[in-house]
Structures are given as C-alpha cells and as structure tokens.
Amino acid sequence: MRDQGPDRAGSLDRRQLLLGGTVLVAGLALRAGRARGSAGALFVSCRVDAEAGHHVTGIDESGRVRFDLPLPERGHGVAFRPGCDEGVVFARRPGRFAVAFDPVAGIALRRLDAAPGRHFYGHGAFSPDGRYLFTSENDYEAGRGVLGVRDATDGYRQIGEMASFGVGPHEVVLMPDGATLAVANGGIRTHPDRDRAMLNLDSMAPSLAYLDLEGGKLRADYRLPREHHQLSIRHLAVLGTGSVAIAMQYEGDIRDHVPLVGVHDGDRIRLLEAPAAVQAQMRQYALSVAIDRGGSLIAVSAPRGNLIAFWDAAECAYLTSTMVADGCGIAPTEREGEFLITSGLGQVLRFEPKSGRRTMLQLADLPASGWDNHLRMAAPQA
Asked: Model-level pTM?
C-alpha cells in the first residue's frame, strides 16, 4: 500500500479499545477465533479492507490465516519480543497508539499510548532480553526525534525516552552486538496539526545514528553527501556482518534521478546503483528493505513503480527486479534466497530472485483487502 495520501478506510468503532490504554475490552479480541495452529513460519502485516477497516494479520507460507485482529486506525510496522510469543504493532504516523498481541493465540493483549506531546513513527525494537521496547517518536513541538523507552515486564509502562539525534526517526533496529540501536532519522519535520505535511524540505538533514542501548549515548552518526540532503533515510535491515541496508525516499526535484538504496559498512553510507530504467521506475520512493535468510540478497520495494528490486549483499551489485502491482511488504522466508512479498492490492507471493520463480498464494479466508507497507516474519519461540 503506497504510503501517501489519506487512509483508504475509516476508523473502527472505539468500543475496541479503552481510552486509558491499560487493558483491552472484549471487542478487540472477537476475531481471535480466526487464529489457527499451523506449522511453519508466521508472517505478520497490517492490512485494510473496505468492510471492516484496519487489521493486523498473520499468515503462514501457504497463505493460511493464523490470526486477524482489528485495529482502531491504520497500522504500520511490527516488532517481536524476544523470549516469548508477543508482538507489538505500531500506528502509522502521526498515530498515537500501539497494540501488544499474542500471535500464536491470536489475541490482543494491551494498548500502548504515546506520551503527551509525542506521536509514533510506526516502528520499534526490543532489547535482546525482551524487557525494554524502544519506539521511534516525534517530540513535535520541539521538532526533534526521540525514542520512547517502555518496560514490557511492567505492562509496557513508559520509563523514559532518549534523543534520536535527528529529526523524524522512522525505523529503529537492534544491531547484532545486542548493545546498539540503529536509527533511521528521516530528516523531515512534521506536526500532527499539519497531518503528513513536510515542514522543512529545504533544510532536511537525514542521518543514520547508532545509539548505546543503555543510556542512549550517541556512538556514531553518518550522513549523506550534501547534494543528497533531501534523500530521506527511512527503513533499515541488518546483515549478519553488521552492515546495515538502507531504503530511502527522495523529496527533491521530480526530475532528479538519485540512488534510493544504500549500505552502511565502515565509515560511510555507500549508495547502490541500479540500471537507469530501474532507477527511473522506482520513482524516487523506496519502501521496505529485507535480507534473505542466507544473508546474500537485499530486497527493496518501490510500490509507486510496482517494482521489487534485488542486490547482491556481498558485492553491493544490482541483480534483478520483478513487477508486483503496489508491492510493499517484503520478508525472508525460511529458505535461503527466497522472499515473501505482499501488495497493497491484496496479493501475496513467494519469489526467488536468482531463478525468477514466482508462486502466488491464495487467501480464501480473507475478504478483499490491501496489505500495508511492511511484512515481518515472527521468530519462533521455544
């Protein structure tokens, strides 16, 4: 689902969530009966349908629905808590809610609300022990990015926040060392009173910041060359080597042709090239980024161009692309060299970039709906 313009469906009845945000009433769990046990990997994404509004939904690799829970408004990203069967889905900017859920039982557990003067940017990450949740947020009056810090063992009570050392933090991910958070500071100032208007395009300063998990100290900060200051760093995926793949969105002149994918490894962000025709088709907008299970492939979606593009992770060299109408979400499957892809038009398919093999999945259990921007595979818990 292209992340632009107004939502395609209205909000659900507020019977679902208590305004206090500490517990859920029965309404939100009514669809828990849709949950089904199933072997194999579980993939989770947000979706919207014209009949019932917004949902967070889990499917397996065959397309069978494992759970389907309503949300009060449009969702965006999902984070999974290490050590237990629990996930958190975050509202799309400038939403103020998140919902913790059990993806195995298919039930909602708790609503989380942003602190006064803050809203979520749609993503979050857990500490390695699963105790703390770090959420990308906007301190919108001050025009600065922050990470909210919540204690998952205490009902997700907010215990503090740390600076993101930039403006407009979007995706935040835990690095392999277990002690560092990588933050994509998009560089775009927004305010909820202005909906999704971009307020500082001339002075944008996107960055990739690395923060100490304990205490929030800035460990390192990397920026693009000045001529690319309108190239907003939005989404991240970590390779096994510790390098970070980056998907970006360009807010400059529509006639410009700029790289939209990068890899940070060492002392700079390396911009990855694609053939001119592919670059043009991406239409200055890269969305999700994912790494295959073997760590050899980088996948990036460009929904405005109906394209999913792939690079060799080791060589940072363009490999191939495939057409998917409004293709947005990407996640690695359990097989090396393969991805699951979701579309804003409701499609789900498996794709192997090296062989070009495509397998469409049938979703008979769901009404006609569009998948949202991201897809995540839930890590199995012991």
From this structure: 0.90
